[in-house]
Amino acid sequence: MRDAIRGEARGTAPVPLSVLDLVTVGEGRTASQALATSVEISRLAERRGYHRHWVAEHHSMPGVASSSPAVILAHLAAHTRRIRLGSGGVMLPNHAPLVIAEQFGTLEALAPGRVDLGLGRAPGTDGATAAALRRTQTLGEGADDFPEQLSELTRFLDDTFPDGHPYARIHAVPGPVQGPKGRPPIWLLGSSGFSARLAGLLGLPFAFAHHFSARNTIPALDLYRESFRPSAVLDAPYALIGVAALAADEAKEAHRQVLTGALSMLRLRTGRPGLVPTPEQAEAYAFAPAEREFVDGWLANIVYGTPDEVRDGLDALQKRTGADELMLTANAHSGDARLRSYELIADAYGLPEVAPELASELVSELVSELD
After folding, report:
1. CB neighbour list of residue 76: distance below 8 Å, 6 or more residues apart
2. Considering just the CA atoms, what is the radius of gyration of the chain in Å?
3. Which residue from 62, 93, 117, 165 could staple onto 142, CB 3.0 to 4.6 Å apart?
4. Residue 261 burial (CB < 10 Å; 0-12/13-18/19+)?
């Protein structure tokens, strides 16, 4: 039986490799095209032995089309057979726990045994949009109540509210009330110490957003490991980190592609969100000194270059952090560049063209169909 949390390192990779997908929308492209690219990425990732494919909840960002992770994951589940699919993550304070329990119970019914539920406590957007999502101006309350919301969500997933509780007769469906079934493992996501400590205390797997909070990575992982208490879920800590990584056939092309994502982030951080610019637009942009400093700092935390350079950079990062899994996000204007990057990284690590287990499953399914 496959482990629901721990992946398997393939080829020469030091740890399992996975995909974090923001469903980016570039200038001149549409959300439909971006979502079609996500399907292609998921198929490629499955074919090349990546362990999981997560999508992240963001709102009111023109350059991102992943506002509804559960909807996207259902679509990806229909186009894949083996790769784990999940949220990286769903922002719990934006939603009623019962809604999330039913969405992910539905996903588990659609793709049994391969759905992950990653949860974050940030809004995944700006304050005004968060207020519209949560229908309140007191945004801090949602984050402060995160442990209570998490407990409520877990009880809905497991159908374990005690007698006398106001929700004791409420059942998340699909769910256990309909008969014994598995349910998605919960991951806590974070970019600081709060979720790291909570994940450790609860004995849950932890995912850290190294791709935009690199300076906090090692302190957060240390805190997670120090706080960890064995649970029914895990007997030892398991931590993955999100890594911005992009490989191209030539180093110059890799730089052109990652510059588009850096300019997109600069515009977002300065209140000018938009579609991801083209490489030509990024190269022609006249950066002010402060903007250039921001972009240089942003690029410093991206692992990019030729396949060999990216492989060496990922190896060094894994060794430095001790991460149990690397989840790679390739943010660029072009969907083709993103697909090419995942393929080149798989080649650099010698990941199999078709994972042996998948090949065996496909043969078995074909034989069954012929019979």
Report:
1. 38, 39, 42, 53, 55, 85
2. 20
3. 93
4. buried
Strands (E), the chain: 17-21, 52-55, 84-87, 90-91, 115-120, 186-190, 206-208, 239-247, 303-305, 325-329
Tell me the helices (H) and strands (E) count for the chain, helix number first.
14, 10
| SS3 assignment, position 160 | coil
Confidence (pTM) = 0.92
**Cis check: omega of the bond before 356, within 30 degrees of 0:** no
Give the distance, in angstroms, between the CA of residue 245 and the centroid of all CA atoms in the same chain: 14
| C-alpha distances out from residue 111 to 114, 176, 183, 185, Å | 6, 16, 11, 13
Provide the residue-wise pLDDT of the chain in tens; the chain has 371 residues: 368 999 999 999 999 999 999 999 999 999 999 999 999 999 999 999 999 999 999 888 899 999 999 999 999 999 999 999 999 989 999 999 999 999 999 999 999 999 999 999 976 556 676 677 766 666 555 456 899 999 999 999 999 999 999 999 999 999 999 998 889 999 999 998 999 999 999 999 999 999 999 999 999 999 999 999 999 999 999 999 999 999 999 999 999 999 999 999 999 999 999 999 999 999 999 999 999 999 999 999 999 999 999 999 999 999 999 999 999 999 899 999 999 999 999 999 999 987 555 555 554 554 444 44
CA 59 from centroid of its chain's CA atoms:
15
